[in-house]
Structures are given as structure tokens and as C-alpha cells.
Write a structure and sequence with these properties.
Layout: E1 5-14, E2 29-38, E3 42-46, H1 52-64, E4 68-73, H2 85-91, E5 96-99, H3 101-110, H4 113-123, E6 136-137, E7 142-145, E8 148-156, E9 163-168, E10 173-175, H5 193-207, E11 213-215, H6 228-244, H7 250-260, H8 267-278, E12 292-294, H9 300-310, E13 313-319, E14 325-330, E15 337-342, E16 355-359, H10 362-371, E17 380-382, E18 397-399, E19 410-415, E20 421-426, H11 445-466, H12 473-486
Parallel strand pairs: 3-4, 4-5, 5-6, 10-11, 12-15, 16-20
Antiparallel strand pairs: 1-2, 2-3, 7-8, 8-9, 9-10, 13-14, 14-15, 17-18, 17-19, 19-20
Helix pairs in contact: 1-2, 5-6, 6-7, 7-8, 11-12
Length: about 500
């Protein structure tokens, strides 16, 4: 009969990762497992729990064993493995707690007030014990329990740096800390390719001990503590390395690893890892082009007549048997359109206000609308911010274009028969960042023509300053037009 025995206590808690993508909510939890190794009279506890409640339950569990708790050993510096230490030492004052020097240094950083406040408390509000302590530094690599050796095995970087396992040769037991995971997504957020390979070597080290049982720090609710989880953890890390080498975004990395390991608990750990590795990668955004705005109208035919009269292009007029109808118009040179019809919106007719129509010549645009019989306000500029949204006749709407025809400064307004209002704004030079730098686009021939005229005028001034004919004028024109549209400094 072996002199030593062991048993485990497992507690379920929420994952420390929040904001998990939808689809695996039923697996969004994790367990912590502690191990009590006991002889005839004395016992050694390996690791503790995180929360006050679980730590109190752990104290009661150890007391119910009837053993004298002589030692507590902590495998590594993550807070969920040692935050319950103070409650245990208070209940068992003759026990001593130990960890390696590098682990103790990491624990001191974990319990700094600033880190507790910024990391642990937001994730586990009201659950972190108010008093936290770190263990003593273990001298050497051996603990003793009733004459039997328990060997500390240095593993290096697994789910964090400077981790260890505890090997009990006499009973073929390895308490792996967080080196081995049991049907749970390993926490890889603190790793890179090199440290993940170090983790693989740590698994080789554990496997070389030929254990009969391997206790995982994180697993399922009823863990089997089988050595097979060494290979399963190894396979997961290798799968992760392979997927990481072929993906560029956090979502892609998460989904592809999840497809390979769909039934492991705590996918939050994988999501945290994916964000840590890919969260700051520069990924081209998916284009989302605003193309259609729905406006509420009372009479479809009346509105159709009005927007036809205005000179907008009729793109569609579709009728359906259920009474649904959609009509689409596009303003001249616009990349976006408007739609109205029946059964399209519950909003009251005329509710759309101050929809922008950007033009390059406010006076010409107003005259064109007026020539179509549209009632248009006089051109005005703002006497104070927000005046362009005031009703016609407001004292802060000042008649006439903006002084010096400053871009973005001149306005005019008109409404359709239902009262949906449109705001004309003159824009000749874009503010920085208002146009994508990857391309220069024009919505119409007239817009391009006006841009060329402005470039030609500016180029004439350029040749006056240089006193010579510029044979490379097309290059200068191109630079001017691109800079103008992007809101950058214009060439001289």
C-alpha cells in the first residue's frame, strides 16, 4: 500500500474573458482544481482558488479531511491559483506556503493594488479576497511529506512565465499547474511562437516522468486526471501554431481553432488569445457604403413627380402584389440614392430633416433648382455654429455665400411637398481625412471638370512664380487634384 494518497476539489467559475463572440455561451465557463496530497497524518495542498466563497469552501474541505495541513505549494503566479492563500493560512496557522523565487516575484506583481483594481476586480467584482499574500520562497526543489519526496519540476513558460509542476514519484502523480489542460481551451494569450514551443517542451518533460495520473489546473467538472491530456494539450498547441501561421485577424484565428476543438470549455480563453495575437493587426476594413436613404412620404405619385422635376434620375419603381412599392431616385453626380414608397417606414411623412446635398458651386446649384420650379431659400452662411439647421428667416442665417467662399461655409435649403428638407452645402476643398487616401473619385463629369479648372488656375499662378513653362504640367495637375480632394497641402 502506498504511504501517500491524493484527492482533488474542482470549482466552476466565470471565464475572465468578456465579450465572447456568440455561439458557445453554454461552454463559457472554466474550473479550477486544487489537489490535497496526504499521508497518515499530514497533508500538502497544491494551489488555491480565486474567490472568497470558493476559498472558504476549500478551507472547510481541507478541515474535513482530518489531516494536518503542513504545506501549501503554489505552481505559478496567476492569481486564480493563490488568491485564497491568506484564508488558508489564517485557518491553518501552522502551515507554510511555498513557491519558487520567480513565481513569488510574479505573485508580488499580481497583488499590487493597481493591478488588482485594473485587472482582477473588473472581471470578478466583489469576489477577490480583501487581503492577499504571496508565499515564501522555496529553497531547493523538494518538499517532504511523511518521509516521501515531492519534487518541484521547473517547466519554464507554459500559460505564463516560470511555471512549475509538482511530481510525487511514489504514487506516479504529477500536479501540472497550468501546463496540462483537460478538455479546456489553454490560455495562450501570454505566448508567442517561441514560448508556445517552450510549452511543448514542458509537456515532453512531464511525459518523461511516466505519470499514472496528471492533474490539470483547469478542466471539466468531473476530471479524469488521465495522462492522455498531455498529448491532447500538445495537439491543441500544434493546431494553434498551424492556424496562427495562416490567419490574419482575431476572428479568423478564433473561428478556425474553434472548428478544430469545438467542445472544449472556456472558449473565452481562445478569444483572449486571438485578440492578444491579432487585436492590433492592421486589417483592411470591410467597405460599408451608404447608398440609400429612405424618406417618408404621404403620396408616392406626388413625390415621384417632384423629384423628377428636380432633375434627379429615376432608378426604379417597383410594385408588388401585397401593396409594397419602392421608388428610387439619385441626385446628379451622387453615389447615394433616396427611396420612398408604401409599406417602407412607420415614420411620419416629412420627418426627414436637413439631408445634405454637397455641391461645388452653391449659386449655380440654387439657380438650377429654381429653374425647375423648386422653391429654394436664398444662399446664406452661418452667423454662429448650427445656423444651417435653423429655419429660414432665422437671424443667425446671414444672407449671401460665406466670405471668400470658404469651403463648407455656404448653404441653401429646400423641401419636398411633404416637408422632408434638404440642405445644400458648398464644398470645394475637403478637410483632412474626409476622403479615403487610397483613391481620388469624382461623382460626375462636371465635378471633374471643375476640379480641372481649379487646377489649371492654380497652375497658372505656379508658372508665374517660376517664370517658366512647365512641360510636366499633367503631373502637377494630378498632384494638385489628389491633394485637394484629400484635404492635404496643395502644391505651389
Amino acid at each position: 500500500m502506498p504511504k501517500l494518497n491524493w484527492k482533488i476539489l474542482t470549482k466552476k467559475r466565470d471565464s475572465s474573458t468578456q465579450g465572447l463572440p456568440p455561439g458557445k455561451e453554454d461552454l463559457a465557463w472554466v474550473t479550477n482544481t486544487v489537489t490535497l496530497i496526504s499521508g497518515e497524518h499530514d497533508a500538502i495542498l497544491v494551489d488555491t482558488f480565486l474567490s472568497v466563497q470558493h476559498s472558504k469552501e476549500l478551507v472547510d474541505w481541507v478541515a474535513e479531511s482530518g489531516k494536518n495541513l503542513a504545506t501549501i505549494y503554489v505552481t505559478h503566479a496567476h492569481g486564480d491559483h493563490f488568491f485564497g492563500l491568506k484564508l488558508l493560512l489564517d485557518r491553518f496557522p501552522n502551515a507554510r506556503a511555498f513557491a519558487t523565487a520567480s513565481s513569488v516575484a510574479g505573485m508580488q506583481r499580481q497583488i499590487e493594488p493597481g493591478f488588482i483594481k485594473s485587472f482582477w476586480e473588473p472581471r470578478f467584482p466583489g469576489q477577490v479576497p480583501p487581503q492577499l499574500v504571496a508565499p515564501e520562497i522555496l529553497e531547493g526543489d523538494t518538499l517532504y511529506l511523511e518521509g516521501e519526496e515531492l519534487k518541484v519540476v521547473e517547466l519554464g513558460h507554459t500559460d505564463t512565465s516560470n511555471t512549475t509542476a509538482l511530481h510525487v514519484p511514489s504514487i506516479g502523480l504529477v500536479v501540472s499547474g497550468d501546463a496540462v489542460y483537460n478538455n479546456t481551451h489553454p490560455y495562450l494569450a501570454e505566448t508567442d511562437e517561441n514560448t508556445r514551443n517552450e510549452w511543448l517542451r514542458a509537456l515532453d518533460t512531464i511525459e518523461a516522468l511516466h505519470p499514472q495520473a496528471v492533474i490539470a489546473g483547469h478542466g471539466v467538472l468531473d476530471p479524469d486526471s488521465s495522462p492522455c491530456h498531455i498529448e491532447e494539450t500538445r495537439r491543441y498547441i500544434r493546431d494553434f501554431n498551424s492556424v496562427a501561421a495562416s490567419t490574419s485577424t482575431a476572428v479568423e484565428l478564433y473561428e478556425k481553432v474553434l472548428a478544430l476543438h469545438p467542445n472544449r470549455v472556456n472558449p473565452g480563453s481562445l478569444w483572449a488569445t486571438a485578440k492578444a495575437l491579432r487585436g492590433n493587426a492592421k486589417v483592411a476594413p470591410v467597405e460599408m457604403k451608404l447608398e440609400v436613404v429612405v424618406i417618408p412620404v404621404a403620396s408616392v405619385e406626388r413625390s415621384k413627380d417632384f423629384y423628377s422635376k428636380v432633375g434627379w434620375r429615376l432608378d426604379a419603381d417597383f410594385h408588388f402584389d401585397n401593396g409594397f412599392r419602392v421608388v428610387q431616385f439619385t441626385p446628379p453626380g451622387s453615389a447615394a440614392s433616396v427611396q420612398f414608397g408604401t409599406k417602407m417606414t412607420p415614420v411620419a411623412p416629412g420627418s426627414s430633416r436637413s439631408m445634405y446635398l454637397v455641391v461645388t458651386d452653391i449659386v449655380a446649384a440654387r439657380e438650377q433648382l429654381a429653374s425647375h420650379g423648386v422653391v429654394v431659400s436664398s444662399v446664406f452662411h452661418a452667423g454662429e455654429p448650427g445656423a444651417n439647421f435653423e429655419a429660414e428667416g432665422s437671424r443667425i442665417r446671414i444672407g449671401g455665400p460665406s466670405p471668400d467662399r470658404a469651403s463648407y461655409g455656404s448653404f441653401a435649403t429646400f423641401s419636398d411637398p411633404d416637408g422632408n428638407s434638404w440642405l445644400l452645402q458648398e464644398v470645394t476643398t475637403r478637410l483632412p481625412g474626409r476622403v479615403e487616401s487610397g483613391g481620388t473619385l469624382f461623382a460626375s463629369v462636371s465635378d471633374l471638370q471643375e476640379a480641372l479648372i481649379r487646377a489649371a488656375t492654380a497652375h497658372g499662378e505656379h508658372e508665374k512664380r517660376t517664370g517658366a513653362h512647365d512641360e510636366k504640367w499633367p503631373v502637377w495637375y494630378a498632384a494638385y487634384i489628389v491633394a485637394e480632394q484629400a484635404g492635404k497641402t496643395l502644391p505651389l
